Amino acid sequence: MEKTALEQEREIKDVIRRAKGIPDKTGSLRRETLKRLIDLIHSPHSNLKILAAQNIRFFFNDFPELEEVAINAVYDLCEDQSSKVRIEGYTAITQVSRTENKWVKRNADVLLQLLQSDEPDEVIVVKKALTEHLDMDPRVTLGVLCDQIIPPEELMDEEEQTIRDRLRSLVLSFLNGEAKRAIVERHAIPGSIAEDVLINCLLEAIPKLPLSDVETVVKNLLLSLNAYQPGSPRGHTLLQVLLDKTASDLRNGLRSGTISLLQNVRMYVDLVTFLVVEKRTAPAIQLLRFFCGHLSSRMTLQKFPTADQASIICNISETFVVANEVPQPLDEGQPLDALRKQIINACPLLLECLHKHGLPNKRFVDACTILLRACIRRKEESPWSPPPHLITVLRDIQVHSNRQDVQVLIRVRSGPLFVSSVCIQPCSLCLSSPWSPPHHKVKSVMPLKLKRRCRRTQIT
Fold first, then answer.
1. What's the confidence (pLDDT) of residue 401?
2. What does the alpha-carbon distance between residue 251 and residue 265 come to, in Å, rounded to a whole number?
3. Contact 345/383 with Cβ under 8 angstroms?
4. Per-residue pLDDT reduced to its tens digit, 5-20
5. How far is CA 206 from CA 135, 241, 406, 414, 446, in A?
6. Which residues of the chain are under the pLDDT cut of 50?
């Protein structure tokens, strides 16, 4: 007569108790107990499968010839029809890794695949197990997770690509959610091997990822690490990786005329400006060199929609301010003085593009003001003669702009240009030292109300 599930459970528990108490770890009783636990995964009774999941860890590593079979039995439990059995299987994976560290890498990879479960309660257990693996071996576990972020080189069919993309999204969500605090506070600490593994893997992934994932990697993961605090030497490398990707998309977009690539360029420009201007994570001069070399010519800018042109110019002007405000690293690249001249030489085009967009908000007005002040400074500090095109653009802004934020007044007399910017709301990013008009007497062409305002307002 076949024993009931309850009787089998009682008998096996007794065997397990006696096997645990035997001093001889490799004795026949312990071996037979492990074999019996492995066989239980084929039982029709969930309570017996759960018993196997809870106890395999006590015996498997004493019998190398059965170790692989025992681990696979645990994996089979994770695919059982019963949710309770599956959850015990997830927990058993963690127990196996804790018992024998050499299984951390393989088990972390299995758990990572299990993130795709459609059962929310089970996903919570899987994420907890992955977090525990991070605590056990952060270097190995982060390596496994990051390997899933980097798109493979080989071609995949549509179904495989869909699965891979979904899994990458789940891993990024986990790293940016449940695992983030542990990574930032305990594992990817400055100077640690785990920090190097995480950063190197993510930097390798950036050129291969879609833009939405790049923003997640940069803003939510890398910039949360202590390694990317303002002034960090790692910031230079991160910025260069992003600039290389931007330059590649720009070349391909200009060559093919693909709108999506040029849209990517504009969004990458926003991202690198965020990195430099808002976060101060990388040298502004490095970004300014890129702007001067790639995005300040008429031939390039005219390929973008008018709104994108204006947005790019705002990024250029904001980076220009930071480069002038913050001490920049000394290197063999183009010096800041030369970059200032390039920006000023490009001002006719940059101001023209801003004017075409209509200066719709304060950010665009600020950009216009920054560029104008750069021209004024150069005029005051050197025998520079503003080009006719710049004069034409400024007059056009004066005549057609319906903004009260900025009034541009132009007076041409024997060659030199007199420019005065009157700001009702001072620019939040403007250069810090005050500016006042030249002392020589110039006949004014201002309307009376603006003339009074100019006398009352100090221009900075």
1. 60
2. 10
3. no
4. 888 899 999 999 999 9
5. 26, 8, 40, 54, 53
6. 405, 408-460
